[in-house]
Write a structure and sequence with these properties.
The complex is a heterodimer. Chain A is of the alpha/beta class. Among the domains of chain A are: about 280 residues, Methylmalonyl-CoA mutase (TIM Barrel), CATH 3.20.20.240; about 55 residues, no CATH class. In chain A, about 50% of the residues lie in helices and about 5% in strands. Chain A contains 22 helices and ten strands. By secondary structure, chain B is of the alpha/beta class. Chain B has a single domain, classed as 3-Layer(aba) Sandwich (Rossmann fold), CATH 3.40.50.280. In chain B, strand 4, helix 4 and strand 5 form a beta-alpha-beta unit. Classes of the chains: A alpha/beta, B alpha/beta.
Chain lengths: ~525, ~130
């Protein structure tokens, strides 16, 4: 026997051991009727719709935004002309952190990682010529999500669109910010109140809008395993449900509008198992833990994005292939919408040419590969079903540990998910160093890099945004701005839902920074204790 | 035996993506160095003050947001002002080749781009500090 083959240790990219062969004996008491059912039936392991993509393809939603709202608006028109079916807004770092473009800390960062939006005026420009009654828009914004959402709703109002008709998704997932992405402003509890306010406001006024997208994407990008991504994300979801229930809402009043967002990483079968286990776990949690009875409350709907952290700087054209494999996993896992990364994103925000290839990748999967012809085509694979069960059990174990700590906020305050992720991330990097994990073009199969054309964002975006803001501050009714901010401060000090006051402040052209400063004054700012 | 090399790993700017900074900090510590990690959102002033107080030989700046051309020159200026030019500054993150060359001309000892191995960073620091 070849000893090298016998001794080699096979694991998924998350380090889960993989057996030499899978057959019925690996499935134990697996019962297809109980564990799988049919697509569209509880527990939805095989998908949330009976016909899946035969009925309707996933939404091809490329995340984009850079420089000024004017430039991003031009990119949106281009993407819609190319056949993209939804929009997804990337904001720059000052916006994500609740600072205006003219704040000292914004220097050098305006428009670099996304579009710079400081006021309703910028939001009006961002969606100029785009009918918000017809296009669904996703917004990647968290700590100041309520403010940006208010700006969006105000633009919809200006376009004559009824709030009840506005459709889209707000990321608004603050828990994963403390856990992984670290773009937090306020401490956890007032942040959770803001999130609960948007969920409540949404249930009453914008029934077609997803007020939150509970996100594992960033947890995975921070270096977690697939199981950690799954477990922490769903446990975050449970935390949001508990807060909304405590607010006095009924579970079926808001649960149908909770949405999710997962990473699509390299390990093909592990990823598909993750999505299937997610649907099953959520269906059981909603039914058994919270007593949800409406079918829509039980169904986990999710967006997915291919793994940015898997893209390599070396040999960037290889990234097209990685992205295609990851996107295929998301589709075979039953995603509702998908973003495919562009080949140049290890370097910069994508060029128009690169983003077009990324969109075409989705179109090829949708229209040429045949994988959309039948729901959950891999269902019943011994390997995939074993992985799905293992994923479910490992996530349930994490739920128990976090419940025992007193819930996710307590776990975050202890640094538990943060240190689990940091350990996984360091172990992975060590495995890459030792070449136990091969990264093509980086630690194996190296060659000279071919240069690629990159999108450049210069400082003129910052100058443009700063001067526009100065003009706005002198033009607007500053008395009305001040009064609206006073009303907001009082709302924040009390217990009322803050959304109406935020909407009024936005309509008065109070800026993002002014609104967040008013809230900082009441809630304080959050600093994490850094551990290595 | 020489005392351990002291390194400040810093995360300037608004970006919160600290995966790289934390992995590097651990790798340097595992290699026997004394590592101080600043945590997030440090201004150039805060970073240089920490470097002075902690008496480090090396500052490692992790920047992924594209703001390196605004941040790194400020750090270098402050080090000159405080006569701390013996402190080696290394930068890690998403820094295009042209920018990396420009930063080195301003006194940055090395720029490590995505895919750089942990060993290469450890080796570079050991050599740079020993040579100084």
């Amino acid at each position: 026997m070849d000893m090298a083959v016998a001794e080699k240790h096979y694991t998924t990219i998350s380090g889960v051991p993989v057996e030499p062969l899978y057959g019925p004996e690996q499935l134990g008491d697996f019962d297809p009727r109980r564990d799988l059912a049919t697509p569209g039936e509880f527990p939805y392991t095989r998908g949330i719709h009976e016909t899946m993509y035969r009925g309707r393809l996933w939404t091809m939603r490329q995340f984009s935004g850079f420089a000024t709202p004017e430039e991003t608006n031009r990119r949106y028109h281009y993407l819609l002309e190319q056949g993209q079916t939804g929009l997804s807004v990337a904001f720059d770092l000052p916006t994500l952190m609740g600072y205006d473009a003219d704040h000292a800390l914004a220097e050098g960062e305006v428009g670099k990682c996304g579009a710079s939006i400081s006021s309703l005026e910028d939001m009006e420009i961002l969606f100029r010529g785009i009918p918000l009654g017809d296009v669904t828009v996703s917004m990647t914004i968290n700590s100041p999500a309520a403010v940006l959402w208010a700006m969006y709703l105000a633009v919809a109002e200006q376009q004559g669109v009824e709030l009840a008709a506005v459709s889209g998704t707000l990321q608004n997932d603050i828990l994963k910010e403390y856990i992984a992405q670290k773009e937090y402003i306020f401490p956890p509890r007032p942040s959770m109140r803001l999130v609960t306010d948007t969920i409540e406001f949404g249930a009453r006024h914008t029934p077609r809008f997803n007020p939150i997208s509970i996100s594992g994407y960033h947890i995975r990008e921070a270096g977690s395993t697939a199981v950690q991504e799954l477990a922490f994300t769903l446990r975050d979801g449970i935390e949001y449900v508990e807060w909304a229930l405590e607010r006095g809402m009924r579970i079926d009043e808001f649960a149908p509008r909770l949405s999710f967002f997962f990473n699509a990483h390299n390990d093909f079968f592990e990823e598909i198992a993750k999505y299937r286990a997610a649907r099953k776990l959520w269906a059981y949690a909603m039914r058994d833990r919270f007593g949800a009875s409406e079918e829509r409350s039980l169904k986990l709907r999710f967006h997915s994005q291919t793994a940015g952290c898997s893209l390599t700087w070396q040999q960037p054209y290889n990234n097209v292939v990685r992205t295609a494999i990851q996107a295929l996993a998301a589709v075979l896992g039953g995603t509702q919408s998908l973003h495919t990364n562009s080949l140049d994103e290890a370097y910069a925000l994508p060029s128009e040419q690169a983003v077009t290839i990324a969109l075409r990748t989705q179109q090829i999967i949708a229209h040429e590969s045949g994988v959309t012809n039948t729901p959950d085509p891999l269902g019943g694979s011994y390997f995939l079903e074993r992985l799905t069960l293992d994923m479910e059990h490992a996530a349930t174990d994490y739920f128990r540990r976090i419940d025992a700590m007193g819930g996710m906020i307590a776990a975050i305050e202890k640094g538990f998910p943060q240190s689990e992720i940091a350990n996984a991330s360091y172990q992975y990097q060590r495995a890459v160093e030792a070449k136990e994990k091969v990264v093509v073009g980086v630690n194996a199969f190296q060659s000279e890099d071919q240069p690629i054309e990159l999108l450049q964002i210069d400082h003129t975006a910052e100058e443009h945004q700063v001067s526009k803001l100065a003009a706005l501050r002198s033009r607007r009714d500053n008395g009305r701005v001040g009064r609206s901010l006073d009303v907001l401060r009082r709302a924040a000090e009390g217990t009322d839902n803050m959304m109406p006051a935020i909407l009024d402040a936005v309509r008065a052209y109070a800026t993002l920074g002014e609104i967040c400063d008013a809230l900082r004054g009441v809630f304080g700012s959050y600093q994490e204790t850094a551990h290595i | 035996m020489n005392p351990p090399i002291r390194v400040l790993v810093a995360k300037p700017g608004l970006d919160g993506h600290d995966r790289g900074a934390k992995v590097i900090a651990r790798a340097l510590r595992d290699a026997g160095m004394e590592v101080i990690y600043t945590g997030l959102r440090q201004t150039p002033e805060m970073i240089v003050n920490s470097a002075l107080q902690e008496d480090v030989q090396v500052i490692g700046l992790s920047i992924l947001s594209g703001a390196h051309n605004a941040i790194v020159p400020r750090v270098m200026d402050l080090l000159r002002e405080k006569e701390m030019t013996d402190v080696k500054v290394i930068v890690g993150g998403i820094v295009p080749d042209d920018d990396a060359d420009a930063l080195k001309k301003q006194g940055v000892a090395a720029v490590f781009q995505p895919g750089a191995s942990l060993d290469s960073i450890v080796d570079f620091i050991r050599q740079a500090v020993t040579a100084a």
